[in-house]
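Changelog note: in this version the structure field was regenerated for every chain. One regenerated record is shown below for reference.
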Amino acid sequence: MSTERILIIGSNGQIGLELAENLRISYGSENVICSDVRRMEHQIEPFETLDILDQTNLLAIVKKYQITQVYLLAALLSATAEKNPKFAWDLNMNGLFHVLDLAKEGLIKKIYWPSSIAVFGPTTPRVLTPQYTVMEPNTIYGISKQAGERYCEYYNQKYGVDVRSIRYPGLIGWKSAPGGGTTDYAVHIYHEALKSKTYDCFLNAETALPMMYMPDAIRATIELMEAPSDKVKIRSSYNLGGISFNPEDIAASIRKHIPEFTITYNPDFRQAIADSWPQSINDDEARKDWGWKPEFDLDGMTKVMLDNLSKQLKSQ
């Protein structure tokens, strides 16, 4: 079997850091090339500085390393995108076109592009949202992700491009800082619980959203990419379920470890975004097609998050 050469675009973000770590274990560090718009202070090599809107540089990197797979993670997320909608559309859509066109021309074999629960909107059934349903997103992030799904499926059907995708729920991890998403409260809350024993939440207490612990999301991503092509029946994007909870649930889980922890509520513009999203996800197709199954529940995730963040704080 020929060696895979993998390019991660947007590798310094919340997903990219952990994805790179896992892919390097499986494929060898020299075969996983990270890229982002700027270097980090302690950047792991090989690394290339890349703006996904720079098509010429993208092509040069693909040829230099003889890339076979691309994980396209560069995007402007929900809350950040609302502040700069035209740039968000440009980045999220033209970045995708640049990679799809490389595959169409036969320069790469396989693409991973993440979608999101943001593709759903206020008219979507909110409990156990099905794979196929009404999709009328009302955020620029959701609109760009929905359009991206349609283009991924189109390029697969029209040109045979092997593109694979997951609609991520909110992702929770301790290894990197949140990236400007509406679900980020579920990462901040653990940091603040350890630092100040209190948290002021930008969503209200009853706002249930689908979430997932980062190791489950990374495992799902790699499992989907390594699945035989004939098992990948959906080329727009797969629903993926994990844990659904609201801020009061996560606060109660934290109190099992930090009894004095308190939470207050001060909803801002992100409340309206959250209110347009599902409360829980039906992911039967992912389970059936390529064997998806989450491993973490809320209390299991809370323990691991607090343990690791506590060690991080002590080492600073």
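Spot check on this record: Residues 85-104 form the longest helix (20 residues). The mean pLDDT is 94.
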